[in-house]
Amino acid sequence: MQVANDTVVQFKYTLKDEDSQVLDTNVNNAPLAYLHGHNGMLEGIENALTGKEEGESFSITLSPEEAYGERKEDMIQRVPVKHLQGAKKWSAGMMATVHTEQGERQVTVAKVGKFMADVDMNHPLAGLTLIFDLEVVSVRAATEEELEHGHAHGEGGHHH
């Protein structure tokens, strides 16, 4: 079966930067699952997977615009340290979670004081050209429930 809209795709990936440094991988873990054509994956990855079949491996390079966007310098915000979640003690460069009006958001601590912290609201991978090594593990038709919910269920997908 080929990857197409309304299929559940499981895949393994290795994410690298332009210098071929590995940033993330799930090669030794369960494959990632998503419902193709339902905006649950980076558009560049979905486009590259369209038409592929189980067992195919390939690499793609995504520009910042195709991935997590360009870095925006005006995305630094000052927040109370008590609103940072994920650690008890903070220092520059650490990842934190903050609650915003749009829900939880991952941020990077830029500077921290006793009561206030400057956080970078850009996605950690914003501004980077990314290389994805992809392997299609399986492709199957989505269930009615998955189509109704708009996401894949089971291993590598959503669990209710």
Automatic annotation (TrEMBL):
Query: Could you tell me which Gene3D superfamilies the record lists for this protein?
Result: 3.10.50.40
Q: Which keywords appear in this protein's UniProt record, sorted alphabetically?
A: Chaperone, Cytoplasm, Isomerase, Rotamase
Q: What is its EC number?
A: 5.2.1.8
What coarse category fits the chief subcellular location reported for this protein? cytoplasm
Q: Does the keyword Chaperone apply?
A: yes
Q: Where in the cell is it found?
A: Cytoplasm
**GO BP of this protein:** protein refolding
Signal peptide location in the record?
none
Looking at the record, the residues that make up the PPIase FKBP-type domain are 6-80
Name the chain's protein.
Peptidyl-prolyl cis-trans isomerase
Q: Say which species the protein is native to.
A: Oceanisphaera avium
